[in-house]
Amino acid sequence: MLDEADAALEFKLSDLIFSGPEETLKLTEHTQPAILTVSTAAARVLAEQGISAAMAAGHSLGEYSAHVAAGTLSFADAVRAVRLRGRYMQHAVPAGEGAMAAILGMDAGLIATICEQVCDQMTPLPKAPGAEEFNLKLACVAAANLNSPGQTVISGAAGAVERAVELCKQAGAKRAVMLPVSAPFHCALMQPAADRLATELARVDVKAPEVPVVSNVEAKPNQDAARVKELLERQVTAPVRWEESVQCLAGLGVDSVVEVGAGNVLGGLVRRIAPELTVHAAGDPASIETLANA
Description:
Layout: H1 2-9, H2 13-19, H3 22-25, H4 28-48, E1 56-57, H5 62-69, H6 75-92, E2 98-104, H7 108-121, H8 136-139, E3 141-148, E4 151-157, H9 158-170, E5 175-178, H10 191-201, E6 213-214, E7 221-222, H11 225-235, H12 242-251, E8 256-260, H13 265-273, E9 278-282, H14 285-292
């Protein structure tokens, strides 16, 4: 898989993964293809062991891994697309002008109301030379990740996010903390990135997913090839509706889920959203072997 990634990207992603430097790997244009490669490698090993998905879903970048697993996108096309996706997202907003924050222990509806109040009170900032024009009401601050009951991430203009954090604390949030991110993902400030990504996706061949893929944008399964690019483009500026996506899977009869790739964050979210589901990990050789022998 690393050889395939190196060939598709025409640079040694494998060297960066194994040898660093870490600060270069952490740049989102490198992190995104690295995560996709590792996730797809794990999915291929599972397939070799006879373990395949009846449905697929992925959180933000993970939706591309889901589409590769579902046969919608070739790995080479996907790894090139997510590298550009990361680059475009990084460059969409000047450093320091955007921010994200995690709000814990508060109803998502109340958070949305607070964000709307902040946007109503904000005064437009002077337009920087060469900056994109945005509707302040849309680009201010809004929910970016609806992760699980009591866990919402907000994103937008830095001042608006900071104000929303203070108001959420005053309104009784268990925790409200700024996140160390490089850009305000999944909000209207990402529109330039979405526009540039749409141009790249137009060049990519898309097949009908072999299994339904639950999209972040709609939290509904899709197997229509004609809608894949539109949903991936909209995903850049739209909130990730992960809680609803997991509820959708459970409602369609899924009883067991496998978190494919590094980490266990999504497995933890799934357990909080739908505790009746059995959650497995498949992120390293040991966990994959355990699952294959189960």
